[in-house]
Amino acid sequence: MDENFILLKVAHIFGAMLFLGNIIVSAVWKLMANRTREPVVVAFGQRLISITDYVFTVTGAAILVITGHFMAARFGPIAEIDWIRWGWYLLIGSGAIWVFILIPLQIVQSRMAEQFSQGGAIPVRYWTLGRIWGAFGIIATLLPMANLYIMVAKPV
Prior knowledge:
Elements: H1 3-36, H2 39-75, H3 82-116, H4 124-153
């Protein structure tokens, strides 16, 4: 392996750590903050999740896409290599869930959290949206975990 490929691989692994690590940590933060049922704590947790998603999840995803594209080219056409193609499908699937479901839910919940952090009860709708976020969040986390296995084992 040449030095450029090794650097790409290190950057790719770093991107995977940021991406998957922040997804998992965000779920834990949200779960722990929500368990308190304290409006200020829940709002703080929601705010931090939104910030760290933009900083770490988006950065990790960008690093993954860029380095993955350059590394995949070394193996040949993406459409002809099953493990690379499935890796892209899983990443796109997870990304679609984030872009079309999770981020919009987070925006709504963040706006709600701003209001109840100033005082008052957490509305039932916040908890309902949180359950939806949790369900789709599990799927959006399992997809890159499967992707991690495929990138390492190359079984397909």
